[in-house]
Each structure stands twice: as C-alpha cells, then as structure tokens.
Design goal:
Layout: H1 3-15, H2 26-53, H3 55-63, H4 72-84, E1 98-99, H5 105-134, H6 140-145, H7 149-178, E2 189-190, H8 191-208, H9 211-220, H10 226-231, H11 233-247, H12 252-286
Parallel strand pairs: 1-2
Length: 287
Amino acid sequence: MSEGDKREEQTTKKRGSKTPQGEMSFLEHLEELRWHIIRSVSLVIIFAIVAFIMKDFIFNEVIFKPKMPDFWSNRMLAKLGELIGTESLKINQNPLKLIALQMSDQFMLHFTVAAVAGLIMASPFVFYEIWSFIKPALYEKERKHSSGAVFFTSLLFLMGVLFGYFLIVPFSIDFLTTYSVSPEVENQINMRSYISTVTSITFASGFIFLLPIFSYFLSKVGILTPKFLKTYRRHAYVVLFIVAAIITPPDVFSQIMVGIPLVFLYEASIFISYVVVKKREKRLEES
C-alpha cells in the first residue's frame, strides 16, 4: 500500500466510513488541506521549472504559433475556406510583430508563461489532490457513483484548453489584431497583451468545459436543477452565441462552428442535472 493510500485510509477512519460526519477537529482538517495544497503547489512548480527550461519550444511552438500562417488551425481553416468558397476563414495570414514596452517585460513574461504552463500540465494531479481531500467525507455509495471524477474532470479541462488554443485563440488574434477604427491608427501589439489574451482564453475555455462537472456537483447538493437550466436555456444560448460572435470573423459559419460545442456542453449539463435529480428523488421515495 502506498503512502498516499495509507494516509487516505487513516483519514477515512478518522472521519468515519459509514457517515460523512467526521471526527477530525477543525485544525486537523486544516492540516490535511495544507498537505494537499503543498503537494499541488509542488507539482505545479516542478512542471513550471520544466516549462521555464524549455523556453524555445514553449514560446516559439506554443505561445507564438497561433499568430503564424503555418499554424495547424490556420492552415486547416484556409483549406476549409477554399472548399466552401469563403475568404473569411483565411485568418492570420499576415506577419504579426510583437513589441516589448519595458526592459523587464520579456524576462517577467518568461516566468508568467512558465507558471501557466506548469499549472496546465499539473492540472490532473491538482484535481486528484482536491478529490483526495473531498473523497473521505462522502458516503460509500457517493464514492462509488463518483468514481472516475478525476479522470473526467481532467479530460474535460484539457479538452477545453485544446479547444480554446486551437480554435478560439486563432480567431481572437486575427480579429483583435486586424480591427481598426481608422486607417490613421496603426496596431502595434504589446507582447504582454498578446500573451495575456492567449493564456486567458485558453484557461477560460478549460473552465467552460467543466460546466458538466459543475452541473453534477451543484445538482448533487440541490443548488441547481434541470428545470432552472431549461428555463434559462434561450438566455444561455444568446450569451453563448454572442461570445462566439465576438471572437470569430463576422460570418455565420464561423460563429456556428464555435457556438455549437458551447451549446452541446450546456445541453450535456441539463442531462447530467436531470439524471442526478431523478436519482435523488428516487432515493427519497424509497426511504
């Protein structure tokens, strides 16, 4: 038995195996949480150091690649544009020069990007630590029904990160760097602004893809219901397609291409909430 399993077993004994009413004191809970946080932060730092060392790959092949014509998404969208006869999908075809406004910008942004990369790479382990802290407080049946939580949470988050990076980021870069209020104004893009846009969109997409997970747990505790999600479905659709319209070129095809996955996630959240609520109602009827 590994040290982590022994620790979890000891924690489970302290908290009680039959009920979630634990016998640990408040300070013991804080101590347990502290070690989960320490392990999570340690893993993020380790991955961040790896990313810091791999500077050339991280910046040239990951961070700066979406603004280049030979980026995979830009090439595929250009081919798709040729097939359907539209020029609007040929994005990021012109070179984009970035500038650093302060002497320390490039050095500080190196640390920032390394930290973000470390957090993304360590995310499955961070989710595992969060789950390890929550799991002993659940009933045995709840643990059984929640098996695979770390896997699906990590999978959805990383899918969201990839979706944001390969689809939303290229559209956003093309739109924001080519938008002009007047020919008299020349766009000179700050490196800090560019990196902030890429990282914020990527992270936001990762968390948006966790919507089904949030729906599951909020429905589990009775905060969210399928009725609420259905009632505000049309409002949610409007918001989702407004977001898609903002970050894509001004044509319907591009907006639909980005909006459909977001709508699918919302519908999946309704279904998950429905299943959870039905199971809870069935247990109440049987008791």
